[in-house]
Structures are given as structure tokens and as C-alpha cells.
Write a structure and sequence with these properties.
The protein is built from three helices and nine strands, in the order βααβββββββαβ. The protein has about 150 residues and is an alpha+beta fold. The strands form two sheets. A five-stranded mixed β-sheet has the order 6-8-7-5-9, with no helix packed on it. The protein has a four-stranded antiparallel β-sheet with strand order 1-2-3-4. α1 runs antiparallel to α2. About 20% of the residues are buried.
């Protein structure tokens, strides 16, 4: 079963936009300091690459449950683990948690496994995702993070 990642929320877009504007600003600053267009090209190309990569990730990121494996891919496999190795899922966690961050929102799921390779994801239909995971491994503990 394949789950798309949720659409980005405002906080995520603001963080991304701030980084993009900062890098673009570095290019503009370099150009005005030296009056040399070559100083602008490298930061501009970096900004374009980040923008293209982000658009690809926003629209092509897929979370799939295939047999007994949980896989995250965007043209290539980015993360793969056996569902039987998952010990806990924390729901409502922030983007700043987890080691492997493949979510496109600021509130999502942290998936903990026996091998300490935590995964942060934001499946479009969290309840269906959790149901399918629990069908394969009913021993997974679901923990909800309280919003203070």
C-alpha cells in the first residue's frame, strides 16, 4: 500500500522560504560587493537546485508498506526497515525529531525501531497508515504527543 506525504503546512514553507531567501541574498550581496556576475552564479545555481529538489520531494515522496517492509522513496529508496523491528510510533511529533526526516509538515509520526534508526514521516492518511502497520506488527506501541 502506498501513502503520499501530506502537503506542506505554512511553518514548513516559511522555513524553506527563509533558507532559500538567505542563500539568494548571499548571491546578491556577493554581486554588489564585487560587481562581478560570477559571484552571483554559484549561489543562484544552489538556490535553483534546492528549489528543484524540494519540489520533487514535496510531490514525489512516497511511503509504502510492501509485505513486511516500510519504505520511503522519491525515485530511489531513501529508507527501508522491517515492520517487525518497529517498536513504537509517536504521533503528533514535530519536524525537529527523528534521525531520518522525510516529512513535509511540522506535525507527523516518529517511527522507532530496534536499531535506533528513527524515521520522521507525514503520511496523508495517518489513521489508515497506523492501522496497516498494526495489522503486520500488533506489538507496536502508539504514543500520542500532547499539545501544550
Amino acid at each position: 500500500m502506498i501513502f503520499k506525504s501530506q502537503n506542506s503546512d505554512l511553518t514548513f514553507k516559511l522555513i524553506f522560504g527563509s533558507v532559500y531567501l538567505f542563500l539568494f541574498g548571499i548571491g546578491i550581496f556577493g554581486y554588489f560587493q564585487t560587481n562581478n556576475f560570477n559571484e552571483f552564479i554559484a549561489p543562484f545555481l544552489i538556490c535553483v537546485a534546492i528549489l528543484l529538489l524540494s519540489v520533487l520531494i514535496f510531490y514525489r515522496l512516497k511511503i509504502s508498506i510492501d509485505g513486511h517492509f516500510l519504505t520511503v522513496n522519491c525515485f530511489i529508496n531513501l529508507y527501508k526497515t522491517e515492520i517487525r523491528n518497529i517498536t513504537k510510533i509517536r504521533k503528533g511529533e514535530t519536524l525537529w525529531s527523528g534521525i531520518h526526516k522525510y516529512g513535509t509538515r511540522t506535525k507527523g509520526l516518529i517511527i522507532f525501531s530496534k536499531f535506533k534508526n528513527d524515521l520522521y514521516i507525514t503520511p496523508e492518511n495517518e489513521e489508515l497508515f497506523l492501522k496497516k502497520i498494526l495489522e503486520i506488527n500488533p506489538g507496536i506501541v502508539i504514543e500520542r504527543v500532547s499539545n501544550h
